[in-house]
Amino acid sequence: MGAPVVRREGRDKVTGAARYSAERNLPGCLYAWPVPATVPRGRVTAIHAAGALALPGVRAVLTHENAPRIEEPDDPILAVLQNDHVPHRGWQIALVVADTLEGARAGAEALHITYESAPHDVVLTEDHPGLYTPQTANGGYPAVRERGDFDKAFAAAPVRIDAMYTLGALHNHPMEPHASTAHWSPEGHLTVYDTGQGSTTVRDTLSTLFGLRPDQVTVVSEHVGGGFGSKGTPRPQVVLAAMAALHTGRPVELSLPRRHMAAVVGHRAPTVQRVRLGAEADGTLTSIAHEVISHTSTVKEFVEQAAVPARMMYGSAHSRTSHRVTALDVPSPSWMRAPGEAPGMYALESALDELASALGVDPVELRLRNDPADEPDSAKPFSSRNLAACLREGATRFGWHDRDPRPAVRREGHLLLGTGVAAATYPVYVSASHASAHAAADGTYRIAVNATDIGTGARTVLAQIAAGVLETPVENVRVDIGDSDLPDAPLAGGSSGTASWGWSVHKAATGLVRQLGERTGPLPEEGVTVTADTVQETAADSPYARHAFGAHFAEVAVDTRTGEVRVRRMLGVFAAGHILNSRTARSQFIGGMTMGLGMALTEGSTMDPVFGDFTESDLASYHVPACADVTDIEAHWIDEDDPHLNPMGSKGIGEIGIVGAAAAIGNAVRHATGARLRTLPLTPDRLLPHLP
């Protein structure tokens, strides 16, 4: 473990041999095109389908009047085509099925739909009259936590920061759009090829919706072209594809048009965050308050847990962290890479930079002075906490201590240059998983676990884990994943995939070694198989606070003529347990840092208050970073020996790369220009008024 083993499916992906959910080419397959609502709120009064059905090749038009009835889902966004209600613009109200994709799209355009519109409200404001305090935020965290007496401590603090930070909505845009291909056998078995981050969950959801036993449903997610949280739960396209296949009696493929995705696959909710920091003259924090406002939908409640990181990041005797939310007529927000930590740490780390400036203390030193020994919120000891090591190592590698701390003094012609730093953290999550390990008579091994590889190299790392236990070359280990008929496993999300799947693989392989050691003579022709699960191990509450940590450093150049910001170099140093594959880990860290760059400078979704939808709905208008935006980016790590995690000693690495990255860039822009902007992204129109 730890070796830079090349990912197993890499060649298949770059040569096109890897098949995704919309590339199954099943015999007799039909194609579906969803029809989104064009009013921001109301109900459908009529769908006239005669014109569409008259077109060549159009086989069916599904609406709330003729679609198959399904059981009420746990997730209300899956209750598609069940009634005439329109909770937000983009809600899917019909599905056209045809012999070709072009025919389905033409059929959708030929539908004549009438509505009864209702007043709508889609704009989040800090004083919205509908704001309320929920019971919990995403992840089951209490919405409100108080420790000590914040008001008294803050009022008495010699140095205080009170700042408001705002972030607009953000959208996942995986390279592969959400897609599903569904097929019913004559015996009633449903097989679905889906772009989900966890096919066990999709199988269980579909079996409930369609009144089937779990063994009557097979969901295959062999290759998934990115997810970032948006594919973490079943999305409407998988239900629609199964409905259409049931209705027509033929396989149906449904791939969401990218312009539809903003309304149906989740987004990071916009946030208004007030951060207050009180400190002694030497920089010791005495009080921290982080109060977050965000929106949810009228369909279901989702509360971005942005204030949660402030509960454990820095030492302080007095703390207040809270979340308030208002239900608007908007698409349902959901997970987006590092939910909570990404927006919350942007605000917290920006405020800490403001405090460093007010104190005249180096920003790295300020963080070191407030590095707690135990987790402030729970008083549990950290299983490992190497934030200080990340900061020191990063400062040395970056050349941090050579910088002039004065803002707006470093120039190259019309460019202002600056550097910034921010810390990162992400919790350690792990879920119960099942796996099997098989020894064949020819000396090879097979690992089976329903993990999902969303581009992270899961096949490769799981093979390394098994090979290490079995003491065999990694080439001798075959890994089967991405099929719900394999042993049940949790989804690829919350940076918990490898820790969860790997633990069960490690346990199964350990059991296989034990059983093989007890045998005499050759293996039987059918080989030997051992199954294992980690239900008991993962159910136990850890006496330790378990988190990954990191430090980001960034250098920017701000063009005083255009307001354009270019990131010249980024450095991330992380402490995330034992790194299992240095090649795939570096890719994950750099990918997260690049996403943080997009959050800081280019990515943003604008809610149109009149039409009730997001205006940036494709990659021409929603600007994700391109190669030209990432010129010099490095990721390094400190290999931790943490025995309180799992048998591999690993922490999740998929999301910590994005946490803090946007704050480091924002802090660098402030150092370059002297102007503190508290709204992302830092686009030229926002910067220009503040530049000389």
Could you tell me the strand content as a percent range?
15-25%
* Radius of gyration over all CA atoms, rounded: 26 Å
Unreliable stretches (pLDDT < 50, length at least 5) are none
Amino-to-carboxy terminus distance: 53 Å
**Principal-axis shape:** globular
Structural class: alpha+beta
Specify the number of helices.
16
Largest sheet: 7 strands, mixed
Look at the structure and give the mean pLDDT.
Answer: 97
Oligomer class = single chain
Give the number of DSSP strands.
27
Question: Looking across the biggest beta sheet, what order are the strands in?
Answer: 3-5-1-14-11-12-13
Helix fraction by DSSP (H/I, runs of at least 4): 10-25%
In a few lines, what is going on in this structure?
This protein has 16 helices and 27 strands. It is an alpha+beta fold.
